[in-house]
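Record 1 of the preview.
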Amino acid sequence: MVTHPICNREDVGSNPTVGSIIITVASKVMAMRWLMIAGGTVAYLALAIWGAGGLVPFFSHTPLIALSVAFFAIAVAAVFAGGGVSRGEREDRSNRWVLYVFVAVGLALGFVPAYTDRIGFWTIDGEAIRWVGVVLFAVGGALRIWPVYVLGNRFSGLVAIQRDHRLMTTGIYSIIRHPSYAGLLINCAGWSLAFRSVAGLILTAMMVLVIVARIRSEERLLRSHFGAEYEAYRARTSRLIPGIY
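->
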């Protein structure tokens, strides 16, 4: 919720003008969020449709129709999840390069798996693998979005400590420290398998290296901010895979 910088909660409740301003700003923010997420989702699917050779070849596969439905469902969930790209009170700017790599690999994943599927290059035989991919895509997407709902505005696309930042150690965070990244990797692997693409899986493996670099940066910042509390948390949890890593 957007708050007025010179008003307390009582002022907002008793001043209809301030209340109207807050509602208007919140509505504009939500509308912009809808526009950005919807536009990005359509553009990404368009990239895959281009790689597949057009609408007809793409939607001739029932699993890819299901993949599109799952994609839009995840996008709708993302609209209401909160989070953003806040720099907070303290940011590790040295890690911003990761964002550019995410974009580059993400765009490649949008096109390459669909294209290699179309030309039959490095593909996995069998239609069943497409359905496996759809399931993994949906599960990974849910795991990717879930932590954003849990953290709310503390979730940022930047490596940063937010105002009134608290360490989350319950729920899924009591098992793994970075569930959103685990979800992202499962989601990318599922997308690749939906197109039976070995090249897509290789791109996903490249994403692992970038995510590990990102995780190290985040954990270094959290360790410096929370100290012994974070060290104790690290000692009893895994990064991405329960009991393994």
